[in-house]
Amino acid sequence: MDKLVIEGGHPLEGTVTTCGSKNAVLPILAAGLLTSGKLRITNAPKLSDVDTMMQVLRDIECSAERNADGVIELQPGPKLVNVAGWDNVRKMRGSVAVLGPLLARTGRAEVSLPGGCVFGVRPIDLHLKGMEALGARVKIEHGNVIAEAPRGGLRGAEMFLGGAFGSSVLGTANVMMAAVLAKGRTVIHGAACEPEVEDLGHCLLKMGAKIKGLGSPRVEIEGVSQLGDAEVAVIPDRIEAGTYVIAGAMVGGRVRVENCRPEHLRCLLDKLWEARVPFDAGEDWIETQPYHPRDPARRPRSTDVTTLPYPNFPTDLQAQWMALMTLADGISVITEGIYPDRYMHIAELARLGAQVRRQGASAIVQGTPRLSGAQVMASDLRASAALVLAGLVAEGTTEVHRVYHIDRGYERIEERLQNLGAKITRVPDDQAT
Length: 433
Description:
This protein has 14 helices and 24 strands.
């Protein structure tokens, strides 16, 4: 196990290119189960989560390999295994995306309840509700979801997939993938509108599916008998792009994030404007402008955010935004409207000198002009990123332990930050437990 050692206080300047989206590529990988042909995926990020999903597919008897050009090629075998066991599924929540495709292709799916980052309860009830609406019999036994299609296969249905905290991205993706091979018409009300769901839909369309309404809360699917070969390019990762933009904002440097889609980050850019962080944006880039965040007259303005489904502020940028607000002038309130318990980074930011207290589903952040380096423990993927960002501006040395979390969603983050001027290294963690 490794740790990241960061020497804070160094300016950042330069260009970083956004990788393909983790949250888009995982369900697209699962969609490879829906065809008896080949699916080629370009712009797929090199992440541990991608490796895990590819191993899940291999266990199901689907060939999954990345060639020398970085392209992932998938081809299901002649007889898929309809069981996705605990060994790999436990490692990340995204692996539950094989439930819908396996059920549609084989008539039965047995998938271990998923693991991944631990920051509160994240039920899959909407996934199961959608499968049942399509006619499947669903039960949970011995830690596994077991879904069986009725005789004659899944059938189209009209359903509502909104939940207590809004729509479900993975739930929508899972039901879409099951519905494309169901008989008849399926209408999903309360569908997730996130760009990652839309990207999956475009992949399915290239494979021969019939889908209308992508990017809206009402998605209509007309089932087809089979899907064919396709080649798709994964969209840029808006969360990775947002993380590097916030890094530039925290150090006050000229950081240009290229190969991104600013339209996917409108809410973040609006909040940066409210916080008085100078930046420019073009068709496929965002660039923070030099300023002095520690100057009392130029510190970022405290700015409240509430995380909600797209196009609102994303929950996956909540921890990073909190890191920025620890330096702001005044008090900001951050409210988590998706995962109310997603605040495990508060205690670790406090070790760096941040003044944050939790109050229900909100965090109250009192900005401070300085943070100080310390040893901190990463608890989940986005919390890891927040601790790295805080370490970039903290005085002295910060050591971030358990960085396997960050490798799940950020490709070579230390190398990319080094290229911007950060003093950050990855070393073996002799304190790992």
